[in-house]
Amino acid sequence: MNVLCELAAPFVANSAVEGTDVARPFRAHVLSCLRCQARQVAMAKVAREMSAMSSEAFRAPLDLEWRVMSSLEGDLAVARSWRTPVALGAAVLSMAAAILIWRLRPRAQT
Ligand SMILES: [Zn+2]
User: Fold this and answer.
1) How many CB atoms lie within 10 A of CB 64?
2) How much distance in Å is there from the Cα of 15 to the middle of ligand 1?
3) How far is the CA of 24 from the centre of ligand 1 (A)?
């Protein structure tokens, strides 16, 4: 890999995203370098695709935070000893809610 190509890479990326010419110190190189031109075309394509995606909105699953935090290792990790009690607690809570709903269901009058 040419050192000049690597030095030009941030300027190539900037011009691809902004849709402008490459900054002057590297413009002549990019005009004569197929590798840099290919990089610029590829980056411009990605920039266009990302720009098109920016209007799309996706909802995250409700349990995403829990799934991410419980899969972490290290300081931010949910302690493994907490995983089972929390899961059991959630199961018991949902069972209690189901029983409560069952008990409070409207009944036909006799
Ligand atoms: Zn180059």
Assistant:
1) 10
2) 14
3) 14
Distance (Å) from CA 4 to ligand 1 centroid = 6
Of the candidates 17, 15, 34, the residue with the CA atom closest to the CA atom of residue 25 = 15
- Give dist(CA 61, CA 95) in Å, integer: 22
Distance 44 CA to ligand 1 centre (A): 16
d(CA 49, CA 107): 57
Give ∠ CA 36-41-42 in degrees, rounded to 5.
95
19 CA from centroid of ligand 1 (Å)? 18
User: 14-49, pLDDT tens digit by residue?
Assistant: 999 999 999 999 999 999 999 999 999 999 999 999
